[in-house]
Amino acid sequence: MLFRSPNWYGGKRPIDQIIFKVFNNGDALGQALKSGEIDFAQGLDLGVWESLQGDPNITTVSAQPAAFSEVSFNNGAALEDGKPIGDGNPLLKDKNIRQAINWAVDRQSIVDKVLGGQGQPGTTVIPPLYTQWHLDPANPYSYDPEKAKSILDAAGFTPGADGIRANAQGDRLSFRLLYRTDDPNSQKSVEFVKSYLADVGVEAQLKGVAEDALYDIVGQGNFDMFEWGWGVEPDPNYMLSTFTCGARSYEQDGSIYANLSDSFYCNPEYDKLFDEQSTETDFTKRQQIVKQMQQMLYDDAAYLITYYANSLEAYRNDRFTGWVSQPAQDGTLIYQWGSWSYYNVMPVGMSASGSAAPSASAASASPGASSAPATEPAATGGVSGLVVVLVAAAVLVLIVIVIIAMIRRRPSEDRE
Asked: How confident is the model at residue 391, as a pLDDT?
């Protein structure tokens, strides 16, 4: 719950109080929005989001994501000092196998069937939302199962009687693939991945675990592959840091603790580039280094990035207006870097000062939403005479729902 500060330098805003609620059931979330119990919903399931379309009092938004989902490989679990840990299958240390898996998976089909088309196939670790940093990689992994088979053939893995490939030493391409029971799309995604891998002679043994448990499992290095995702900040430094050697797990008082790395990728050349971009003050030069690092991760197949899933949101357009998109074109209205919507949202029919609003509303691609202003306008007055949700007499309340299925995490607030 958030309250308006009476001491804020920008003046009194139209909203006195914001209440956040968590729903663990997607259908209940959608019904709460329909009934007017809440005013805004974020993290909607596809079916629920689609069911809200056509309601004249509800506006649905499919926003560009500042996040990605991935299948992470155990590239060789170790502590930050290089001491091996965990029970990961050592075959995944071979980037040829990781590359073959990348060629084997049809990302577009996963976007269509899991996300209902509300997203785009994944490539590199900086999402396309960040146009100045995102890299469209050279030699992108397309869906090419024949190429995947040829790579595995060249690596000495041939299909056995059960269809699973093995080398001359009897090492089978059979891997554990963990998914999150907290997120239905996680299970759906890995089921498709399992099918695609089977087509090229690779076995994926699926197991569902809760996110809290998965965090610990990954930190200990006790996995082969797992499905999760990252929320990515506007500056690429933090995301890129998770692949440095020093971001691997660490030991303290005889116990092993997770750090930022979930792939245990470690490449001294990558670390050198990371240090260079961290101190580079020339934007163009830093941009080139950042993109070079993304290409390195992509070529080494530290991850299989499955998709960039749109953020499915909806709000009551008969209750509040002034929502601000970030970015202006198809951006999110609530999960933002900054507080644009919170500064600008107001009851329908009222201006920022609490008086009747002018007939023309803010320019918007959808009713009630507006693009981000150059500055956050100040306002005076208030609308304490209007009550949207009666929490106390003469208190205007905006109820916003955020489903904590946000792409994580590590620590949990970092994993979106």
From this structure: 26
